[in-house]
Amino acid sequence: MEEKSIISKRGIGIKISKTKQDDTCETFIFDPEKVARLQREVNQTDGLAPLFKVLADETRLKIIYALSREDELCVCDVATIIGSTNAAASHHLRMLRNMGLAKNRKEGKMVFYSLESEHVRHLIDEALRLKGRR
Q1: HTH arsR-type domain spans which residues (predicted)?
Q2: Can you say whether the dihedral through the CA atoms of 11, 12, 16, 17 is positive or negative?
Q3: Which CATH architecture has domain 49-133?
Q4: Distance between CA 120 and CA 55 in Å, rounded?
Q5: Dihedral of CA 77/81/83/87: which sign?
């Protein structure tokens, strides 16, 4: 693959490549102002990966889905829904709570969980919508 780099009059960096692919640009042209601004802003995502790792677990995702469909569920409800023990359900719910995705309240001997924010429900709904578009 042969490459050639030049800078245009507008200060835009251009790298020309002689390889053709459908999912990549045939030339390498970037906007220095946009790139510089976004390079500064992209660091806002620092620390978000653990949140998405928690959601990447199938069981926790099912729990989040169930919580998004009800105002609240007790640990026993969740355990039954996912087919696990109360201890396993509590473990997953605790992780969701620690990541700020769920909250809990105790009533007597029962512990009830709900979503921390409506944004979590919207995230699940949007993911399901995107999945349906595939």
Answers
A1: 40-134
A2: positive
A3: Orthogonal Bundle (1.10)
A4: 10
A5: negative
